[in-house]
Amino acid sequence: MLRNALPKIVTKVLPGPQAAQIIARRAQAVPSAIRCDYPVVIDRAEGAMVADVDGNIFVDWVGGVGVLNVGYSHPDVLAAIHAQTDRYLHAMANIITHPGYVELAEALASRAPIRGERRRAYFTNSGAEADENAVKLAKAFTGRPNIIVFSGAFHGRTLLTMAMTSKKAYARGMGPFPDGVYRADFPNLYRAPAGLEGSDAIAYYLSSLEQVFEQASLPEYVAAIVVEPVQGEGGFIPAPLEWVQAVREICDRHGILLIVDEVQSGFCRTGRLFASDYWAEAGIRPDILATAKSIAAGLPLSAIIAREEITESVPAGVIGGTFGGNAVACAAGLAVLRVMERDQLARRAIEIGAIVTARYRAWAERFDVIGDIRGLGAMIGLEFVKDRTTKEPYPELVRDLIAEAASRGLLIESAGTCGNVIRFLAPLVITDAQIAAGLDILEASLEASVPRVPQTAGSTPGAA
Predict the structure, then answer these.
(1) Segment 145-165, tens digit of pLDDT
(2) pLDDT tens per residue, range 188-202
(3) Is 422 strand, coil or helix?
(4) Which of 65, 207, 231, 425 is a good FRET partner for 254, with 20 to 30 A between their CA atoms?
(5) CATH number attached to the domain at 2-60+345-452
(6) Which keywords belong to this entry (predicted)?
(7) pLDDT, tens digit, for every residue of 230-285?
(8) The overall pTM is greater than 0.90
(9) Residue 81 — left, alpha, or beta (φ > 0 → left; ψ -120 to 50 → alpha)?
(10) Among 241, 298, 236, which Cα is nearest to 267's?
């Protein structure tokens, strides 16, 4: 059964002959800006394993970039989808109520670690839509025009979320952008200014936020501060709890709402249903939660959750949409929640993270190009540098590693503002044998790639 298989490359080259033909057709039919550098054309997939059209089998550590926390083709999710499609495919929530929408809204509202006893939730189709709708809620509730986001942030590719996203390579040629989006430094402790550690580093990053109030927008005009609890595209950087606590206090002092972007970090990835559950355990709760990706195991769905007084401040017609909360997607979302809770995938994420991080730490003793190891649960970043003292990013090596690993049957992806981080987003249903096989492939890829470059001695990195 593919679900329990191990990676195996059977063609002499990648892509294989059938995959090469389809990839060539893609090059003629699909805009080249929608890049795909992987030599894989999927035929079928189960769990964490992908079989291509030529019979090659890959272990997938990308998981649709965080979409497949319950894995490919989970039988319980498929059964829920099939049961719903036998009844109807869609009922627009603005016109006809379908029970799945209500049930999933109730389930997420009761589980979200946000402020307020009475909560409401509604649905859109993508992470970018969820983030944009969270901002809508904040502006409606506060009557204020501006928001604050952070360096390294990624929030989407709509016009507003391109403005919110830090890396402007994702928005080349797309301006002008909406006004009222201002940026502070995110607390990347690995790259804090020289000599700053611990509380001193936290204070430095908080001063960056305070400078926004001085230089960009007075706090009384700021509707919300938007934070990823673990930055995704920014390099898998967890927000330190001490900093989050201070940001929450700043928000409370100025009447600003705190929005948590859990598009990539949600649904058990970090060892909790939501990464902000860790905040709640420390007495810190956001006002609005936006989430997507693994919510429906690959079907388009996203959610925005907030306390009732916030959701009810929005005028009729401002939120909602044709496909938001599609019946089949909601059926999948309910099945995902049942699977995650029954199979304790949050606990499994912590187990997976411990296995992977231990191996990464062992590599750090051998490979001087490993600068930092960090993350929460099974959302782990491995940062590569040319020199551990200067911390100069090493994106060229990461590109080599991605290609080398794929040639051996492992799919990995980069992250980080410089593209020098390998992200770990394997489905949480991955077996220990498949984790070990992937780690063996990545180690062999390191051995094949690192000797081609000079190495510099330095301290061994730890893990967040």
Answers:
(1) 999 999 999 999 999 999 999
(2) 999 999 889 999 999
(3) strand
(4) 231
(5) 3.90.1150.10
(6) Aminotransferase, Pyridoxal phosphate, Transferase
(7) 999 999 999 999 999 999 999 999 999 999 999 999 999 999 999 999 999 999 99
(8) yes
(9) alpha
(10) 298
